[in-house]
Amino acid sequence: MKQILGFVEISDDNSYLEATRFVHKFAMLSPYKIEIRRTGSLKYEISGLGLIRLTKKWAQDLTKSKQDLTVLPLLRFPDWTISDIFSVITSYAEITKLSTELLDTCEKNNLDGLILDIWSGFYGKIPTSSIILLTQEICARLRLNFRRVLVLVPSMYANSEVINVEVFQMMADFANHVIFDMYDYSSEWTPGPNSPPSSEIEEFVKYLTPDPLERRSSIIIGTNFFGNVFTNYGIKRKITKEEYIQFLENYENEDLEFDDKSLEHYFEISKNDEKMTIYYPTLFSIHSKVRLANKLGIGLAISTIGEGLRYFYDVL
Q1: 132 located within any domain
Q2: Which domain, by its residues, includes 211?
Q3: CA distance linking residue 202 with residue 143, whole number of Å
């Protein structure tokens, strides 16, 4: 497999400890979330750096135990107005200042680069071409200074209706990797698997890269270690391994079913007027994603370390 990226919830003991224990399974870890806001002309504020500084020794120990490990925080762009965005993409001085702030953050905090979550904050506010332009500018300037840059495309946009071949290529030409989150597949009102079948993922990858030698290695597919609980009241929420095991223990008489498309387990619980459907990944479903990544020559991103059953790491 080309690359395995693990997202870490560093404030969660399970995630923190499992990232430490299984660091040898990963080429990249993303244990931090930081945010950048534009506060005025040529003025930017980056929040979330305190946790990076508090856990600096932990990150250093990880890179000592695995010297080729890359540590990359997830960078979000909350509260940006349309005016903010256009002020940046239409001004050389603004884009230079923004990039300098990001590069200084990497240098001062010993970070190997960034994962850009631009799509979450900007899609729908501005044309896709403007998102691409800003992405390219940031990527070019950071990579020129020997920093790695990954671009995250959230699950709601990781489809051929939003990301066509041209859009993908324009991102892949500037970023080290493009991450497509392929989970949160089912909605609140249609209980179902957390991830699409491997055949759908393969079809999407081949659509973006008909020639396997043309940028395919830059693709990373995001998959889930967590599950979801759906209720008949239209509520959907995440479920991690502790609660999943608790459900299995409390409702051991319920039939555990197997979804032969997603390869996930699911079961239904009825209590008073409430009906719950629980979907959770299996060793088989995780292994299928690993096999697919190996087959296609792409990477895999795990969300989130510590939320899955311990033996999921056996197949990474």
Answers
A1: yes
A2: 4-226+281-315
A3: 29
- Cis amide prior to 223 (ω within 30 degrees): no
Instruction: Report pLDDT for 293.
Output: 96
Q: What gap in Å lies between CA 125 and CA 149, rounded to an integer? A: 23
- List the structure tokens of 126: 């501005």
Which residues share a beta bridge with 102?
A: none
Evaluate the CA torsion angle 194, 26, 175, 88 in order and state its sign: positive
List C-alpha distances in Å: 63 to 20, 57, 103, 143, 160.
10, 10, 20, 21, 37
Reply yes or no on whether the pLDDT at 23 is more than 90. yes
Residue that is written with structure tokens 């540590």 in the block: 71
CA angle at 178 for the pair 177 and 179, rounded to the nearest 5°? 115
- The CATH number of residue 65's host domain is 3.20.20.80
Entry pTM = 0.95
Domain count, the chain: 1
Q: How does pLDDT run across 128-141, given as a tens digit for each residue?
A: 999 999 999 999 99
Q: pLDDT (tens digit, 9 = 90+) per residue, 193-227? A: 999 999 999 999 999 999 988 899 999 999 999 99
Query: Is 253 a member of any domain?
Result: no
Instruction: Output the six-digit token pair for 204.
Output: 């999407």
The set of residues, in sequence order, having a beta carbon less than 8 Å from that of 286 and lying 6+ positions away, is 223, 225, 308, 312, 315, 316
Q: Examine residue 71 and state whether it is found in any structural domain, yes or no.
A: yes
Whether 236 maps to a domain, the answer reads no
Distance CA 313, CA 165 (A): 33
The predicted pLDDT at position 99 comes to 93
* Across 44-67, average pLDDT: 94
